[in-house]
Amino acid sequence: MRKVNTILKVSTLVVPLCIALFGLCLLLSKKDMFGEFTKGAASGMKTAVRLAPTLVALMCAISMFNASGAAEYIANMLSPVCKKIGLPSGIVPFVVVRPLSGGASTALISDIFEKYGPDSFVGRCTSLIAGSSDTLLYIISVYFGAVGVKKTGGTLPIALITMFFCVFFASFLCRIFF
Fold first, then answer.
1. Which residue from 107, 104, 59, 78 is spatially nearest to 167, judged by alpha carbons?
2. Is 105 in contact with 130 (CB distance < 8 Å)?
3. Residue 137 exposed, middle or buried by CB count within 10 Å (0-12, 13-18, 19+)
4. CA-CA distance, 175 to 178, in Å (whole number)?
5. Tell me: the pLDDT tens digits for 60-80?
6. Which of 161, 71, 60, 145 is nearest to 108 (CA)?
7. Is 87 within 8 Å of 119 (Cβ atoms)?
8. SS3 of 150, please?
9. Which has the least CB within 10 A, 1, 75, 77, 111?
10. Rounded to a whole number, what is the distance in angstroms from the first to the last CA of the chain?
């Protein structure tokens, strides 16, 4: 018990000590750190302005996709197939929406927890998938947009294949451990 308390005390000090160490290094440095900071901030603002049209278009398209009911329609079509291959039908809407929208998928997590419970098989599968995946379209558009890549090639298909493999693997792991 005493060892656990010591670990907790040390772990609460790690972040403040890192910040203090960083601040000390800045004070002892002979460079103009404020000038460097403002240069970095200006560069960040330029990147944000350059990415804004891409993000607005992406958010608009995702909102239209979700509002149209297409996600629910696709989930209903995929449910019988997913059930045959071992995926619980309760996670299919989440799996369809997750690559598109982080906010919508978070709302679906809440709905799944209310309907099935967080400790249910469906809840645990959803938690594992949510913790190990991300919104693919957002990441691809932001990262490629930031560096100016126009031709993404097979990035999206490969990312989707990888995500669906992870979904099946998460379901498999939940079956083994829970």
1. 78
2. yes
3. middle
4. 6
5. 877 787 778 877 788 788 888
6. 71
7. no
8. coil
9. 1
10. 29
- DSSP secondary structure string for all residues of 2-60: HHHHHHHHHHHHHHHHHHHHHHHHHHH--S-HHHHHHHHHHHHHHHHHHHHHHHHHHHH
- Closest C-alpha to 129, from 84, 81, 93, 75: 93
Question: Are the C-beta atoms of residues 163 and 99 closer than 8 Å to each other?
Answer: yes
Tokens of 76: 């209903």
Separation of alpha carbons 48 and 54, rounded Å = 10
Q: Is the distance from CB of 88 to CB of 125 less than 8 angstroms?
A: yes
Residue in this structure with the two tokens 């909102």, named with its chain if needed: 63
Residues comprising the chain, all counted? 178
Which tokens belong to 21?
Answer: 């160490």
Residue 89 burial class via C-beta count within 10 angstroms: exposed 0-12, middle 13-18, buried 19 and up: middle
Separation between Cα atoms, residue 97 and residue 74, nearest integer Å: 10
44 CB-contact burial (10 Å; exposed 0-12 / middle 13-18 / buried 19+): exposed
Among 116, 113, 124, smallest CA distance to 176 is for 124
Full-model pTM: 0.64
How many angstroms separate the CA atoms of 178 and 87, rounded?
14
**Residues 72/152, Cβ–Cβ less than 8 Å:** no
